[in-house]
Amino acid sequence: MRILACIKQVWEPESLFSLQGAELRPRPPLRRKISSYDELALEEALRLKDRLPQVRVTALSVGPASVVDALRRALGMGADQAVHILAPEQPPRPATLAAWIAAWASEQKFDLILTGVMSEDAMQGAVGPMLAARLRVPSVTSVVSLNIEGGAMTAEREMEGGRRQRLAVQLPALITIQSGPNQPRYPTLSNLLRAKKTTPLTLEATGLAAPIEREKVLAIAPPEKLRTGLVLEGDAAQKAQRLLAILRERALL
Amino acid sequence: MSAAAKRLVVVAEHAQGRLAPVTWELLTCARQVAPTLELEIAAIVLGQGVEFLAKEIAQRSGVETWAVEVEGLAGFHGDAQRLALARLLPGLGAQAVLGAHSTSGLDWAPALAAELEAAYIPGVESVSLEANGPTFWRSAHFGKVRENLAPETWPLVLTVQPGAFEAAPPAEVSHGQVETVHPGAPPCRTKVLDVVEGAGADAGLGRAQVVVAAGRGVGEAENLELLRRVAGLFSSAALAGSRPVCDLGWLSYGQQVGLTGATVAPRLYLACGISGARQHTVGMQGSGFIVAVNSDPQAAIFNLADVCVVEDLASFIPSLLEQAEGV
Ligand SMILES: Cc1cc2nc3c(=O)[nH]c(=O)nc-3n(C[C@H](O)[C@H](O)[C@H](O)COP(=O)(O)OP(=O)(O)OC[C@H]3O[C@@H](n4cnc5c(N)ncnc54)[C@H](O)[C@@H]3O)c2cc1C
Ligand SMILES: Nc1ncnc2c1ncn2[C@@H]1O[C@H](COP(=O)(O)O)[C@@H](O)[C@H]1O
């Protein structure tokens, strides 16, 4: 069985950003990581590999040269193969991303494709289902638990209000992974040493077919302030004192 | 209903025989967008035995509504819903399709957009009306910026962030027409086996006047003890958490606030180490007074806080407890 896990590299969410014209740039120190839902998708792939015979896991990432670090971490966690679709830093529209991934993956006969429920930074939840549509395989989203027995897959997906739906899914299929009790494993030293010597299979995005971009980003702007947001000044103790005073004034304490 | 009309189609969301509140929010967004595009608003409800829901929409909103009776579609089934919509929408002259950016919408909308070769804009929070048509705002980059998008081609599929638009239908409307169609069972490749009910929200959470909420920023399970002590400062308080904290098992799922957890509106909500993702804030944005403590001055939670404490919890919380308990 062949499994593909799509992982996106993102900036550390706690990085400070500055808005420069139409671009958001993180300020140093520049730290990147694998988007957390994608790390869980990879973890799910590796769990299937732990349980089932003859599973081969491929990790794929689209992005600039820096995504090689994310792919090395994926190999360190236990992925068998790494694929890098080399693309500019600024991510394209999700339909384009899906087309690029599909251009390579359609030749590969994956039984199962895993993505995150959404990327942590862009929060679109689009690339997975769009990739499934391109590959003409069914997609099930927000999955918190997966099981494959005798070639038959059941997926448990989350619904609003904490309800869960169990589905039988024909393979090949695409599943988007939502967070649950599983935590991603740490890379092992032996895998990391192996990863260091591995060069990912690299493809140029410019050589891959993609549709015209159907949406345009016109502008980016700071978030809207929905409330006054009084910022407390001073050291931790002064802020605590001020907060207690405010809560007492408002008869909340 | 005229077949030639160009329409903006709202896909209603419902569960367990009731319309989800987000359906009315979709209609509010639709009313902002449709006039400039010269589109007629229509609503569509898919499922089994959904005609009464279609009537409710038509009566309360005045829009023409289709009840699509899909055989075997007892509850939500993304595959069936997407296939039925893909078949029906072109015939309805759908130029724009609005769904919720919920676990259901996320399941059918992006794949539908890909199949219809439509433009796709997910998680819309507000609309700007420009001379050459509407543009759409959504959060990006962990909520640290908003981006403004416009479709370059039609049709357009978009999903609307729950909680971003008013749910109120217009005060006085004449009833919209209802039409029921039976398109037959679509060729699904997934099958719903069963649905397991969630644990339900913790009873104390809904009643509490003060909610002290822990996010991933608390760092370790042991630190929750300190927040429990903070809750103890108030006469009617409950401890709650963001999703990651519940996933880690530090708090129970019944204590999770947000889209897939509980919705609360206490007099005071104290968010500790919570980044302020939309999926969390939709569950607490109605709180009377919001205080956020976060070490990241750009954390999105500060945009809806009344009081912002930019501080490390490790130094702030002990200091708060010391001063409050010392009195
Ligand atoms: C379909 C769907 C449904 C979802 N439903 C929900 C839901 O119901 N509820 C929910 O909460 N989430 C939900 N989520 C997840 C949501 O998108 C966010 O990932 C989640 O809310 C983040 O939780 P958090 O803020 O605790 O963690 P993070 O985003 O990791 O934020 C941690 C914060 O803590 C701060 N911090 C770190 N260290 C410190 C310190 N020492 N002192 C002070 N601050 C510190 C950081 O600056 C950061 O802002 C859902 C997601 C999806 C896709
Ligand atoms: N640049 C990328 N490289 C690899 N996978 C990606 C990339 N961008 C998005 N994905 C996958 O698509 C999922 C959804 O992303 P999004 O549509 O941006 O929310 C992510 O969780 C990833 O699994």
* SSE ordering of chain A: EEEEEHEHEHEHEEEEHEEEH
N-to-C span of chain B: 70 Å
Q: What ranges of chain A have pLDDT less than 50 throughout 5 or more consecutive residues?
A: none
Estimate the helix proportion of chain B, in percent: 25-40%
Gap between N and C termini of chain A:
59 Å
How many H/I helical runs of chain B?
A: 9
Largest contact between protein chains?
A-B, 87 and 101 residues
Strand content of chain A: 25-35%
Mean pLDDT of chain A: 95
CATH architectural designation of the largest domain in chain B? 3-Layer(aba) Sandwich
Q: Biggest sheet of chain A: strands side by side, in what order?
A: 11-10-9-12-8-1-6-7-13
The main pleated sheet of chain A reads as: 9 strands, mixed
Task: Please give the number of β-strands of chain B.
Answer: 17
Strand elements of chain A, count: 15
Provide structural commentary.
The complex is a heterodimer of chains A (253) and B (327). Chain A has helices at residues 36-51, 67-77, 94-105, 127-135, 189-197, 236-249; strands at residues 2-6, 9-11, 17-20, 23-26, 32-34, 56-63, 81-86, 112-116, 139-149, 152-158, 164-169, 173-177, 201-204, 215-221, 230-231. Chain A is of the alpha/beta class and 253 residues long. Chain A has one domain (2-207): Rossmann fold. In chain A, the strands form three sheets. A nine-stranded mixed beta sheet of chain A has the order 11-10-9-12-8-1-6-7-13, with helices on both faces. A two-stranded antiparallel sheet of chain A has the order 2-5. In chain A, α2 (67-77) packs across α5 and α3 (94-105) packs across α4 (127-135). In chain B, β7 and β8 (133-140) form a beta hairpin. In chain B, α3 (78-88) packs parallel to α4 (105-116) and α6 (224-231) packs parallel to α9 (313-326). Chain B has a nine-stranded mixed beta sheet, with helices on both faces. The model of chain B has no long low-confidence stretch (mean pLDDT 94). Chains A and B meet through α3, α4, β9, β10 and β11 of A and α4, β7, β8, β9 and β12 of B. Bound molecules: flavin-adenine dinucleotide (FAD) and adenosine monophosphate.
